[in-house]
Amino acid sequence: MAVTEVLLGLLAAVIAIALYITRRNLTYWKRRGIPCDEPHWLYGNLNGVTKTISLAEAFARVYRRYLGTGPFCGFYTLQKPCVLVLTPELTKQVLIKDFANFSDRGLYTNEEDDPLTGHLFALSGQKWRFMRNKLSPTFTSGQMKFMFPTVLSVAENFVDTIQAELEKNEVIEIKDLLARFTTDVIGSCAFGIECNSLKNPDAIFRDMGRRIFTDRRHGELVNTLISVAPGLARKLHVRFVPDAIANFFTKIVREAVDYREKNQVQRKDFLNLLMELNKGNLKFEDKTDGRGLSIDEMTAQVFVFFVAGFETSSTTLAFLLYELALNPDMQQRLREEIIEAVGQHDGKVTYECINSMPYMKQVISETLRKYPVLPNLQREALADYVVPGHPKYVIEKGATVFISVMGIHHNPDIYPDPQRFDPERFSPEALKTRDTINWLPFGDGPRNCIGLRFGQMQIRVALTYLLQNFVFMQSGLTEVPLKLNIKQFLNSSENGIHLKVERI
Length: 504
Description:
transmembrane helix, 9% strand, 51% helix, iron, four-stranded mixed β-sheet
């Protein structure tokens, strides 16, 4: 009997301690006097909400609710206290002025057990700094000019593909078609491989592109653990990338590298730059490790270039064509600008030509404002940080800091009537009235999107060819308003984008 009483006492003590820790964790912000919604005892503030709305909208709602209460508000992911930035001043501090304290994203990397997670987007510390510096030359204007003819060639094939689709049906689901275009562009510019996605919608590269966003190695609970506690997941040797995807990209890179080395092939593409890095010594924290990039490290960089390059550009293009279909006057104005610009360059689509069109730039910028593909930015505090001018607001070391890009872009005080598509928001005159920190589709500061120029080039080339050859219109299948996919962390349409298309 005594043993039973002792065991029951111990169990009661364990439960009491667990309840105390849980309560203490979930009163973190309340005890500090920081605004925060009442959290669920297990899920915190977001996990339950995102069953019915997208993660982008979940963050945006919290942003709108506490706007004006201070530099940031608190929220919980499971029981982990996190920060959501509310002011342009703190946004600028985190991304630019005090970047040294917020240089890491705090994302999951496990190069030993899961090599594809060791890519530039997720790397931290000295490894990120080194990789960023070494990869930056790939995305200069000069390098874009070298890749430009390849993009043009794919765009010409794209026009033929759309024409072939029109012979079957005048209404086209444009999102997948655009993803096939950007897949072929990235495949050629990153790997030097013809993916043939435009000719074959079930081509292996396109299939893998889809599976990256649909296949899951684990269920929701483990994926949440990886997100909330990446350090613990790493200690447990948890793998994130499904084997089929990891094996495919590793095989592609190995074969391409072997072929180029044996046949002394040189191409001005992303893989070639990585091979050049492979020949040199790498320095981490001022120490030379005496080796170049391993195949796994090269594969990780190619993998993230492929994922980011095809998905972000195709999604942005789909949203853009959707808005032009709903706004035919804007579409015609942009078409006239394209025709005039091409005419001024002897009827040729050149690199200078696609960068000479101000209204195209405005249309792209407004699309990225209304539909930022990456709707939230994430950083991790490397040391305790007191918000300047707000001594009560302290971001503790290790805290995850979020910036709601969607919230900022849909803030009516910054962008009046934010649901309205209006490229004039980005006219030269309008830009002078607005802080640049309030437009963040590519992030800002030293850790902004490294592929910004490449993405813009893809989009501008595609628009130039598409609007010269086709008119895009609303059809009976066009969803108005557009529903966003609540299951994806990137902004994307839930049911595709169906438009009526006519050849000019």
